[in-house]
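Deviations from the work plan: none for this task. Representative record:
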Amino acid sequence: MKDLSVTGVTKAFGPQDVLRGVDLAVPHGSFTAILGASGSGKTTLLRIVAGFERPDEGEVRLGDEVVDDAGHRFVPCQHRRIGYVPQEGALFPHLSVGRNVAFGLGRGPSRKERVDELLELVGLSGFRRRYPHQLSGGQQQRVALARALAIEPDIVLLDEPFASLDAALRASVRADVLDVLRLAGTTSILVTHDQDEALSMADQVAVLRHGVIAQLDTPAALYGHPEDPELARFLGESNVLEGEVRDEVALTALGPLDLGGWGGPAAGGRARVMVRPEQIALGEVVDGSVEGTVASYEYFGHDAVVRVRSGAEGLPELVVRVAGGVPPEPGRRVGLSVRGPVVAWPMEPAEPAGSPE
Amino acid sequence: MSATGAVRRHHAGRRPLPLLLTSVAVLVSLVVLLPLVFLVVQAVQVGWAQLHALLFRGLTATLIWNTVSLLVVVTALCAVLGTSSAWFVERTDLPYRRLFAILVVIPLGIPDFVVSFGWRAIFPGIGGFWAAVLVMTLAVYPLVFLPVAASLRSADPAQEEVARSLGLGRLRTFWTVTVGQARSAIFGGCILVGLVVLAEFGAFEILGYQTLTTEIYNEFQVGFNEPAACALSLILVLLGAMLLASEGSVRGRGRVSRVGAGAASRARPARLGRGSPLVLAGMALLVVLALGVPVGAIVYLIVQGGNSTLPPASLFAATANTFGYSVAAGVVATMAALPIALLSVRFSRRRVMTLERSNMLVLAVPGLVIALSFTYVTEHLLQGDFYQTNPLMVLTYAIMFFPLAVVAVRAAVARSPVGLEEVAMSLGVRRRSVLSRVTLPLIGSGLAAAFALVFLETATELTATLVLHPTNVQTLATQFWAFESNGSYSQAAPYALVMVLIAAVPGYILGRWFDRQPERAAGAGVPLAAPAPGTLVAA
């Protein structure tokens, strides 16, 4: 178990800059997610860490050892003790499950026991003699994990391992994998474009954007306090309003909103204020409350997203998430209130407040 | 893999070419291109003045006309016959289509000169241009059928449905989508047909039709006129090179395959309706003409029996010799193809691709020309050493059919996902071990296919064998030819039969292999991993 540090890593493919100075520190034993849109370079970063690609500049360290300095120092992949779980699992199709798991193990006498142990760990005891094509997608993914863990890696790299699974299966395989990794206690890095996956699995999430790490934080801090509106939108739906900051409070068309002690722009400054959809509550219209009209809704069962239009000046169409129950019909007048602290960013001079996305 | 030094940007992040693999690949390519070099050396020795006199004479024009007109007509007929039969077998409700899928391909395993021999035995009067057209078309149309059938099988039928939904009629859908999907397969097959027509000797000799190749053979073997053979060889190679070059221009930029994931749905076969009996009769006629006539003729000749003025020969010895040469050539060509295939798939950069392509130039050089260039060099530069020896014979076969081996091995390497090798390395397994534990097992069927292809071609090769075989070693082809030239058809027939039987086995293996390709990949639950974005862009 080692920690990983990536410093100033750049990588270009031909004229295209993919990574433009990535710094990332992953403490040992932690589960870190690298979250990025497709084409953001997240897989390239993972492949550099694994040793499949070399950076143009920068340095990769595993524990105390520099494994790649973009120059003469380069530890090839097979000497890095890295457990790699690629997209689609990539099991060896010509080998049985048992032989897949044993692939990286030496020819010791304890080989068979170790394979059994690993298969039990991933909940697939008794699958030893099966072949990859006889397994479901989720089972293949768990075998790939067992195979990666067999060499007792210092660090496990997961490259979008759940992307090919269907939605129903994904959640349960995710939970299984997380359990196994926690049990094994390895340092893990997950690359994904799925916000839910990153937020629900990781101890810390690094958002990779335009070739650099835009923010590295705990899931709650990242979701609650993204460093700019683009990050806010990337991590989930958000309403961005115009406002003015005064005494830890943002004055907006939705009324005075608590900044929760996170600072924000200097008092008296014009600001953009982000309110998450689930922070807004719909209620009866009472005296003094901000009012709006339900424009439309999407019903998901466990919750619903309601779009509310308000006549108030400076108030865009709002996205509101309401838990359970029957959402209000379009056309209905509702009262709006905000729960919990919100985030404010200083307004750049020529920039209007964004519309809800 | 060691560090590359601190060259920035475009090269720093690139994996260096593996030294051993690269050196072997370059060496192999040099050997493969030897005959071309020898041909040029020979041409220089003959001198321009003499070449000029030989090239610009009436005979040359006649030969070119004979060859090119035949090539055009045969290729066109093969395109029509191969494509339509592939469509009937793959995309319609033709009765017995699974049986036809096999029967229609078998003629590929029958040497062209045996087809010619069969027709001649039944219809002794035939000869000339149209006889050559008939025989060649029936002998080589599977070269179009096979790739077109494979591409129709793997193409997504949903594209046809989409076209229909966009308002295209049945016929326009067929032309724009179905033929479009198979376009590169059709052209690829046609190029192969053209190259075979250029290189063919035996079939035309039997039918008394004069082409460049038959004339080269006669100038050399009968007239001992080396300069004339050299001059005509230059024309022949030039024609072949033009054919090869045309493939690149026709292939175009688009990719003919499915984009994106999503399983291909099974095509709903087009209904032939009342046309069904007609198509069935047509397919049956094709099988009778292409398969029935030559095989029937051979069997008839054997049953009928007869006497020969030639000394009796051993069918068994000839079979053993042919078998030996074919195995040796298959092993040599497949092993030599492996480094080039590995290098070109895993390190596909411009220089590597040029190296791989250069090997394909051999396709333009008929076996006869290769044999002649080796003869020239061993006679004039090596004082006769190596001439008509087993190693030179095997080397000639291996070079002749090397491109086939490269194509088969390359396809298999390209289908084995690079991700699997990366995973293997991440598990701490060394590069050489990865080759033996992951790569080779995965491409095993491709290696077998490459071996089978070269084996099949070698077993039925006539022209180069006639020139280069050691005088005391008779193969099936040389023995067949001796009897045939002597008019002893009944004695020649058993040799033809054994050749057909020997070729049928690898032919069957190949058919199975081509059929299983798409299914294997999908069935194994490991999708044909698209190359990682990195590898793609780096290329």
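The first helix of chain B runs from residue 19 to 32.
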